Amino acid sequence: MIDFKLLSQSGTARAGVFGTVHGKIETPVFMPVGTQATVKAVSPEELKAGGAQIILGNTYHLYLRPGCDIIGRFAGLHRFMNWDRPILTDSGGFQVFSLARLRKLTEEGYAFQSHIDGSRHMLSPEKSIEVQICLNSDIIMCLDQCLAHPATHEQAEAALALTTRWAQRCKAFWQERTDRQNSLFGIVQGGMFADLRARSAEAIAAIGFPGYAIGGLSVGEPKALMMDMAARTLPLLPDDRPRYVMGVGTPEDLVELVDLGADMFDCVMPTRNARNGQLFTERGTVNICNARFREDEGPVDAACDCYTCRHYSLAYLRHLYTAREILAYRLNTIHNLHYYLNLVNGMRAAILAGTFDRFKKAFYSKRNE
Amino acid sequence: MIDFKLLSQSGTARAGVFGTVHGKIETPVFMPVGTQATVKAVSPEELKAGGAQIILGNTYHLYLRPGCDIIGRFAGLHRFMNWDRPILTDSGGFQVFSLARLRKLTEEGYAFQSHIDGSRHMLSPEKSIEVQICLNSDIIMCLDQCLAHPATHEQAEAALALTTRWAQRCKAFWQERTDRQNSLFGIVQGGMFADLRARSAEAIAAIGFPGYAIGGLSVGEPKALMMDMAARTLPLLPDDRPRYVMGVGTPEDLVELVDLGADMFDCVMPTRNARNGQLFTERGTVNICNARFREDEGPVDAACDCYTCRHYSLAYLRHLYTAREILAYRLNTIHNLHYYLNLVNGMRAAILAGTFDRFKKAFYSKRNE
Predict the structure, then answer these.
(1) Which of A173, A352, B120, B156 is least crowded, fewest Cβ atoms below 10 Å from its Cβ?
(2) Is 0.90 exceeded by the ipTM?
(3) Cβ contacts of residue B79 below 8 Å, gap of 6+?
(4) Which residues have C-beta within 8 Å of that of residue B8, sequence separation ≥ 6?
(5) Cβ contacts (< 8 Å) between A323 and chain B: which residues?
(6) Looking at chain A, which residue has its C-alpha nearest residue B80?
(7) Model-level pTM?
């Protein structure tokens, strides 16, 4: 599917559209993270009301619990979780690396123990694709080797070489096992080394995928270094395919990366920060626990038209959060997702109107007021 | 307001209707409990979709947090929590008795320390009514003296005498401070002694209130004793006013108490049990953790038309609950509240149709299948 159409460019910022079995996706696009077959604290209807076009599922989590035998009975994740729009799943590699007890990394794949029950598993490129096919993901990600930061040039070089060999295996397995209606994305690695990023981009593009992602960013490196790596890598990716920057980032990151030509993003920040009482607004983030909101009858953001801002005051949200009421997490999450989705929509509209520069200036000037 | 109209009787079971500033209430009615200005895990829209006509707020909790100064700025609880239908609040006495550190009980009232921060407070009959007026409750409850079970006849007699004197003070304060658009209910006490229940009912009815409640049941006594007390007390309450059995109960309790002529109920059971993974169905309760639901593609109850049953499987609900996802508590709560509200609606329809006996038989036969 995919068939990416570039509709407009404003400098290097791009607005486009592509197709999936579960509907089209207008880019740039932000994907809320639904780790365990639910975007934490919100319903599918609330995601749609907020404008979510596509969500991300975590293969590692879903493989361990509830498992492919169960999700397979529902012919995939969509019916299981009551979400009929597109789904992208990651490969599981990052969670094996960050959550599981990694026992051994070999040419074959990751041998690991579950963080839930200690059970032993092997995540190979083929296994990752097989699980993602079972989840019936619209966009399947190649298994890549993640690196801790900082890594040496030698470590990063070895990881990118393995990632490239795994990408070939992923593509071969995907071609053999599917009708290619569900798309497979290649992932560029290379650590924090510009020469390796370039070599990885070239190698992954040479294999050829319906879309491309940049992995291994936002792993603890300084912000300027992350942006430098993205700025050097994005132009090396084929411009007729969607470009996805994985696991990033803050609102500022999204604005900068869209400006650099990125099309797709996912990040736990809006949902996780909501559960920690941090709310995003045009003028920066606010902490709902702050005593100055105690009697505030106004909404989080008077300019916001999300469900939370239309119906609830800062004083009420502060009360719910202080009292640890379940509704607090939901109302905060609805607001933060709306902020992110609205921000990306605003960028898209500005690119289409040829006014992205003005949009970006206004974005920063509001935050610095 | 109130102006209770008895529409139909089926034996001693009653169907009626009465008015409040925020709309009419059709009885029998079940009131979901919204302790801290939210019915745990659900939104006002979900309560309405489930058919909730009125909810209960807890004066003790709301007085301590967020406090009357804040809720007063919103002219009461309705706007603060985005609920425009009727609200009943309890007096706060039961929570002082069960949650707070009770320092002293005198003729004046309860001297207690907050369970949140240890701060010292005095809950007198006048203070309770004042707080409930500030909350702008549609139905205000008199402050009563709660008793631990078991209590001696002497203790119960003293408590009922104090409850009667407090009821007079509550009524005087309510008459002085309000235009009586918000109604005040008297509460019958008397422990587990039929003679004291009768004496209390007579004394409270003699004072005269827009509605009457039976308090001090379901406090740890055997079920048969609770039902015996209710059966003896309900006929002694004026039959031209709504009769409210406080803090009760199981589905069976509701069916039995409606049969005995009760009109109003509140209980945390549907909401609390939902958060503990217990789901109500016509055929009894199920524990969502049960391994037999692991692969079950069917809904909790095929006959149920709640949001949860229309969109989600047992396997998905079990997965969410096992993974401790926030959505689990919400979907379970939506189902359980729907079960309770639907049960009471079904009883009302049967009373109006003159078929309550048949309804009751069918209720038990399904549960014993």
Answers:
(1) B120
(2) yes
(3) none
(4) B14, B15, B351, B352, B354
(5) 36, 65
(6) A316
(7) 0.97
